[in-house]
Design brief:
45% helix, eight-stranded parallel barrel, single chain, TIM Barrel, xylose metabolism, Xylose_isom_bac, metal-binding, 16 helices, alpha/beta, 436 residues
Length: 436
């Protein structure tokens, strides 16, 4: 049943590369086979609840610019918001959606009331999902907006805040399991510090480790078969966050014995804030065996903050999906659009057009990545570059069968005089651009 918010906008169809329709797919064809698998099953698109249906269009220097009929702190408004959200999911034909607890229900006067409202909305979602709505890619808890979390949630100096956050996560995990969510995400939010003058880093890291261990234990206790994901981010809103980037998160997981239990949800915009490329974070996560899911957005390279814009760079998308495919593709994870309209993009149609463009960029990147893999366009030169390590002596060094002295004797005996070989970076960059 139409809410009327999107007017007469019809479900978005694939019309091919020659289409000039802004509300049609030019590259995303859900049933197209890529490396023997449906494109929809590769990309596993999800639309996020918070930016699309909660964000009012504010920024650090100005307030609300969006006027939405569901804005308001009542359960009636929350259900209208859900009606519009699921209508948009249907128009776009996405297989998944994502949400925070705070996105879908108004805050209650107590913890118990907030949980009751969340469960009521979960019942409402369940009806829509059983009637052909999308599945839940992941759920998460908002542990950063309420003033109680101004000094963090798990890392808060007040144990009562730690406990309240833990109880909130439990409720959200219960709902995520009930809705057959395929993952559960923890984003640090304010798990960091503003100044070291009032911060005990060792204590706070141990609190965070204990919190995450409790989450993992509870996952197994309730039989939740999804993946627990941590989303790295270096800063903003805090000066420094403990989940700075993929490498930092992996070190944290190793320290607390959780590297086999938890993976990462990598956001392109957060990678940029950390001084990395999206490609770097994905490649590192894949090499460490913790690549779980991605948030596909971008930052403005001229801004020093998280602008959460829709993706529009096909070469970047191609390299991102190249590493996803090389790692075996998504299992429980997918491509979540953690992206929001610009505050001047006021029309309902803008919500649809933004996602259509982003989905097309991802599809174009996926197809380019698949062709590069089929042609060994990047893996071939890579194998050639490291071919020397397949030799017997090289393998002996790697396997610990040579001491430092023995290696030195080998160099002297064979009169080794290795010469540098071109890395061919520019040629490889040109290869990528040929496929996009």
């Amino acid at each position: 049943m139409s809410t009327g918010f999107f007017g007469d906008i019809k479900p978005v169809a694939y019309e091919g590369p020659d289409s000039d329709n802004p509300l049609a797919f030019r590259h995303y064809n859900p049933d197209e086979k890529v490396l023997g698998k449906r494109m929809e099953d590769h990309l596993r698109f999800a639309v996020c609840y918070w930016h699309n249906f909660v964000w009012p269009g504010n920024d650090p220097f100005g307030g609300q610019t969006f006027e939405r009929p569901w804005f308001g702190e009542t359960m009636e408004k929350a259900k209208l918001k859900a009606d519009v959200a699921f209508e948009m999911f249907q128009i776009l034909g996405v297989p998944f959606f994502t949400f925070h607890d705070h996105d879908v229900r108004p805050e209650g006067g107590s913890y118990s009331e907030s949980v009751a409202r969340l469960n009521e909305m979960a019942d409402y979602f369940q009806q829509k999902m059983e009637s052909g709505g999308p599945k839940l890619l992941w759920g998460t808890a908002n542990l950063f907006s309420n003033r109680r979390y101004m000094a963090g949630a798990a890392t808060n100096p007040d144990p009562d805040v730690f406990a309240y956050a833990a109880a909130t996560v439990k409720a959200c995990m219960d709902v995520t399991k009930r809705l057959n969510g395929q993952n559960y995400v923890l984003w640090g939010g304010r798990e960091g510090y503003e100044t070291l003058l009032n911060t005990d880093m060792g204590r706070e890291m141990n609190q965070l480790g204990r919190f995450l261990s409790m989450v993992v234990d509870y996952k197994h206790k309730i039989g939740f078969t999804g993946t627990i994901l941590v989303e790295p981010k270096p800063q903003e809103p805090t000066k420094h966050q403990y989940d700075y980037d993929v490498a930092t998160v992996y070190g944290f997981l190793k320290r607390y014995g959780l590297e086999g239990e938890v993976k990462v949800n990598i956001e392109q915009g957060h990678a940029i804030l950390a001084g990395h490329s999206f490609e770097h974070e994905l490649a590192l996560a894949a090499s460490l065996g913790i690549l779980g899911s991605i948030d596909m957005n971008r930052n403005d390279y001229q801004s020093g903050w998280d602008t959460d814009q829709f993706p529009n760079n096909a070469p970047e998308a191609a390299l991102a999906y190249y590493h996803v495919l090389e790692a075996g593709g998504f299992t429980s994870g997918g491509t979540n659009f953690d992206a929001k309209l610009r505050r001047q993009s006021l029309d309902p149609e803008d919500l649809i057009a933004a996602h259509v463009g982003g989905m097309d960029v991802c599809a174009r990147g996926l197809k380019a990545a698949a062709r590069m893999i089929e042609d060994k366009a990047l893996s071939g030169p890579l194998e050639e570059r490291y071919a020397g390590w397949q030799g017997a002596e090289a393998q002996a060094m790697l396997k610990g069968e040579r001491t430092l002295e023995e290696v030195a004797e080998h160099v002297a005996r064979e009169r080794l005089d290795p010469q540098p070989v071109s890395g061919r970076q520019e040629r490889l960059e040109n290869v990528v651009n040929r496929y996009v």
